[in-house]
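Write out this protein's structure.
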Amino acid sequence: MQIKHKSKPYVEHSQREASLTLIDGRPRLNHLLRSRCRVAFIVFAILAMAVVIRSGISASRGYALVATQNQAQQMELENERLRVEIAQLKSPQRIKQIAEEELGMTVPPKMYFSHER
């Protein structure tokens, strides 16, 4: 009796399986597997979109960084140019020329110093 009992559920299981696999002569789709595949596809698509969005953000930040570095380099060049211009404007020859030509000043021929106590 034990053998029949064990074989009977097996037969019922195989008959049930056979009845599930064929509907009107066509194989029945496994809806559980199909829904799991859909969920896996959706998760994969979301992860792929996240990677693409993150790459885009990284690229735009990289472009912004390069633009900022170029701007800093241009400012450093401008700063160096202004330092050279300041040095030229401070030169004693230029100041003497402006004093003589524009202000009519002259350098005295002799200078006298007095030592008063």
